[in-house]
Design brief:
Layout: E1 22-25, E2 30-33, E3 38-43, E4 51-53, E5 62-67, E6 72-78, E7 85-91, E8 94-102, E9 110-122, E10 126-131, H1 134-137, E11 144-147, E12 150-155, E13 158-163, E14 169-171, E15 174-179, E16 186-194, H2 205-218, H3 229-241, E17 272-273, H4 274-287, H5 290-307, E18 314-315, E19 326-327, E20 339-340, H6 351-365, H7 374-387, H8 404-418, H9 423-444, H10 466-469, H11 478-491, E21 492-493, E22 496-497, E23 513-514, H12 515-527, H13 531-542, E24 554-556, E25 561-563, H14 569-582
Antiparallel strand pairs: 1-2, 2-3, 3-4, 3-5, 5-10, 6-7, 7-8, 8-9, 9-16, 10-15, 11-12, 12-13, 13-16, 14-15, 17-18, 19-20, 21-22, 23-24, 24-25
Length: 588
């Protein structure tokens, strides 16, 4: 079966395992490309808007460049340090590539997707299909042509223009064109998708490619002093491609991808989580990615100044409210269901105030914290003082409880920012940190000497590694050592780490290993001087990706499959920070 012939269920491009997909990103939206050159997911005009191409979750809409020869093998690669992707197909008759990117710098109102087809050897014709379906397929778009190889369409509040399909025919509202090239020849296709009517003129494909390459080059960081330079550069590119001009970074590009088959844990991650933003900003600060650090500080400080003690756990990239959850009338990715919006909009999460202070401290350490940000620092500290005793949903967004991790992250944040505060504030905040620590230690220390999840929950939790990493207490404090040992004994399996034990039985019966936790255990081992084990964990977890090098939130150890929304930004951030820190001499 070729990619342009429907399968038994009538779907042109059935879903693949997640490891086969690549992401294009320009900061304002992302596009997921499959192994048959099929664009299976893209929301427009921005991340949180409805999808125009939604085949990934059982919807409609297609934009594909795929070989006509049904016998081919697929491969591909990113340009180093970018999200410019090249799909490559080796057929029985030749080799053909399609270089693809979202044009940079991104425009919040207009998405520009470029595809450059090139035959390397032999004969390898491709078929191009284009059928946008705005609002998860609720609307259709009718094409018309003005000549000169340009087609236009509108519908669902969007306007589209595509160049490079001058020989296309329209069948059932779908543009189709077969392209035959000789070795060395190229063919350019440019699709523009806008929330407003497009202007008459448009940049040439060569100008768009040049501007995109220059934009990526301008944001590039060498990362040559890390433990994995190429992967660190890719992680930076993923974070850059998922970060809007507002400074906000979405948690993931997708929605509804299951964390476990039929488990009903399917969420919409197309929003900017304050915690994830702070984790990414701290990683960027450690690794010297100043632009990402500055963007994180700008977005988090703006939200704190606007909302103070009412800070929400997540926002749209424009600082808007995350919509309430609702179910889409779509089949979903196999094993999952489709939901848009997120229930996080009604939660209180205490630890985000501590994370914000850690982010601001990282900026101050790099001399990137401006005087205008200090009011946000004061807001975060005031929120901790007012609310540290209140139950919250915690890092794992569960039921309200006085979670140990949340309180210890406030301690870590207060202690970190005290180093840069005026003496009076440093004294007050230091005393507050000591008070929170004393109460938490008195109520949340397990009889074995380790931290437990809360006063009422004696279980081990991998999140309790983070406070020592961030300086809430020393890495060699007895509680830090005991907590790390408990995580090793109870939550570590074959080099991967689970969050916590849900119930008796194998850990994998409930969920996948959390890659974020794997990287944090690597950092813990490094802090405690166990360098061989730190590198072992780092290498194990950084290999838990697809061939494009992208991570999801969870990893199915038994099946060696990616689980959850794609790609997960904070996992790339954790990998980036770990790669940087492991290259430093112990103790730094």
């Amino acid at each position: 079966m070729t990619g342009t012939q429907p399968g038994s269920n009538g779907v042109l491009f059935p879903a693949h395992v997640l490891r086969d997909y690549a992401l294009l990103g320009d900061g304002e939206r992302g596009a997921v490309i499959g192994p048959r050159g099929d664009l299976v997911w893209m929301c427009a005009p921005q991340w949180h808007d409805p999808a125009v191409f939604s085949a990934l979750v059982g919807g409609t809409g297609v934009f594909a460049v795929t070989p006509l020869n049904p016998r081919y093998v697929w491969g591909g690669h990113y340009d180093d340090g970018t999200l410019i992707w090249t799909s490559r197909w080796v057929t029985t008759d030749g080799i053909v590539e399609s270089r693809e990117a979202l044009a940079m710098p991104g425009d919040p109102a207009v998405a520009v997707l470029m595809r450059r087809i090139r035959v390397l050897s032999g004969t390898a014709p491709v078929r191009v299909l284009l059928q946008p379906r705005p609002d998860f397929g609720r609307y259709q778009m009718d094409f018309s042509t003005a000549g000169h190889g340009v087609w236009s369409a509108d519908g669902g509040g969007l306007w589209l223009r595509v160049r490079g399909m001058g020989q296309a025919t329209v069948t059932g509202r779908m543009l189709q064109q077969d392209i035959h090239l000789r070795p060395g020849e190229e063919h350019q296709i440019v699709m523009e998708l806008s929330s407003q009517p497009l202007p008459a003129g448009a940049p040439s494909p060569s100008d768009l490619w040049a501007a995109t390459e220059q934009a990526w080059a301008a944001s590039a960081t060498g990362m040559n002093d890390t433990a994995a330079p190429a992967d660190a550069r890719r992680a930076c590119a993923v974070l850059r491609g998922m970060t809007s001009s507002t400074g906000a970074m979405v948690a993931a590009a997708t929605l509804g991808l299951p964390e476990r088959d039929e488990a009903k844990r399917n969420y919409d991650y197309r929003y900017a989580w304050i915690r994830d933003q702070c984790v990414a900003g701290q990683a960027a600060g450690a690794a010297g990615a100043a632009g990402l650090l500055d963007g994180s500080v700008r977005f988090v400080s703006e939200r704190l100044l606007a909302d103070g003690t009412g800070l929400k756990p997540a926002y749209t990239v424009n600082g808007g409210r995350v919509p309430d959850e609702q179910t889409l009338d779509l089949p979903g990715y196999p094993g999952g269901t489709d939901k848009v919006g997120n229930w996080v909009n009604g939660q209180f999460q205490l630890d985000i105030y501590g994370e914000a202070l850690l982010l601001f401290a990282a900026a101050a350490r790099a001399d990137h914290l401006e005087s205008t940000h200090w009011k946000a620092v004061e807001q975060a500290a005031a929120a901790i003082e007012a609310k540290w005793g209140a139950p919250d949903a915690g890092i794992w967004e569960l039921g309200n409880e006085r979670w140990t991790h949340s309180r210890l992250m406030c301690v870590a944040g207060l202690r970190a920012i005290c180093r840069y505060a005026p003496a009076a504030q440093a004294s007050d905040w230091g005393a507050l940190a000591d008070k929170i620590m004393a109460e938490t230690a008195a109520t949340c220390t397990h009889p074995s000497g380790r931290w437990q999840r809360s006063a009422a929950d004696g279980r081990t939790d991998a999140a309790l590694l983070i406070p020592a990493i961030r300086g809430a207490l020393p890495a060699h404090h007895p509680r830090s050592l005991a907590t790390a040992e408990a995580v090793r004994k109870e939550l570590l399996d074959d080099g991967y780490v689970y969050r916590f034990r849900h119930k008796p039985g194998p850990l994998a019966n409930v969920e996948g290993a959390f890659l974020l936790c794997g990287f944090f255990l690597a950092l813990t081992e490094y802090q405690q001087g166990n360098l061989t084990e730190a590198f072992r964990l780092f290498e194990r977890n950084r290999a838990a990706c697809g061939s494009p090098g992208l991570f999801t939130e969870e990893f199915d150890i038994e099946q060696r499959q990616l689980r959850g929304n794609f790609p997960q930004a904070f996992v790339h951030a954790a990998m980036l920070e770990t790669a940087h820190r492991l290259a430093l001499p112990p103790g730094q």
